[in-house]
Amino acid sequence: MGDCALRFGSVASAYERFRPGYPDALVDEVLAFAGRPIRTALEIGAGTGKATRAFARRGITLTASDPDEAMLAELRAHVPPEVVTVQGSLEALPLTSRYDLVFAAASLHWTEPGSRWWRVARMLTPNGTFASFGGQVHLADDDIEQAVRVARSDFLTTDDIPSPDGTAAAAPMQWPGTELVICDLFTDVRQSSIERRVVVSADSYIGYLSTVSAYLELPQPARAQVLTRIRDVLPQAVSVSADITLHLARLR
């Protein structure tokens, strides 16, 4: 993972408080795709355990990894004690264990392109399942979204995370599916979407933005200023779109 991934530890409590979790429907889809019992799983870039706990509730023996000890400390406060935690990026994890499932929740883009797929493949049991899922949070009201764009324009042209391989947002297959379909280590690549619409307070939305990498990369005074400007143009509550895109593949 790149250096920016390590900065999330400074906002671990905000990450836990303001980032949305993952629904049971997502776990159901992953387990149905596997087509066999999932007894063991490894999570890459587990953060504060938003996805960890969703899978742990299914009785899976789970190992949660993250390069930032502050994130893992927050994770341990929220997951069952039997979840094993390992500090390390995907590139630093030992290749000595194999799992029925390896998954990444909004973290795969921090991994190294040249090594991620062969490393994941080495960590999977025969015919094991890989899953990657996540999605960006957007304001559902176009007028409010435009007001926010203007408010942040002196600091950021966008706060979106670009596709790591440049895939257009309108393309039928999104990243990392675009890489998986041409990787000879995996087969049966699938993409699906789970729709989420929620209403949150303006302060909660600002709390969410405080955990987004585009803002974390700003110097602290600039970050505080832009978040204040955004807060000033928001109503007391906002509707947000937080759709999840899920990619699944099977070890060949």
The first-level CATH class name: Alpha Beta
Q: Give start-end ranges of low-pLDDT stretches.
A: 1-6
SSE ordering: HHEHEHEEHEEHHEEHHHEE
What is the name of the CATH topology?
A: Rossmann fold
Q: What's the multimeric state? A: single chain
The appropriate CATH architecture is: 3-Layer(aba) Sandwich
Q: Gyration radius, to the nearest Å?
A: 18 Å
Question: How are the strands of the largest sheet arranged?
Answer: 3-2-1-4-5-10-7
CATH homologous superfamily, by name? Vaccinia Virus protein VP39
Beta-strand content: 15-25%
Question: What is the first-to-last residue Cα distance?
Answer: 25 Å
Count the DSSP helices.
10
Helix content: 25-40%
Query: Got a strand count?
Result: 10
Biggest sheet features:
7 strands, mixed
Mean pLDDT: 95
- Integer count of domains: 1
Please state the overall shape, judged from the principal axes of the Cα atoms.
globular
Structural class label: alpha/beta
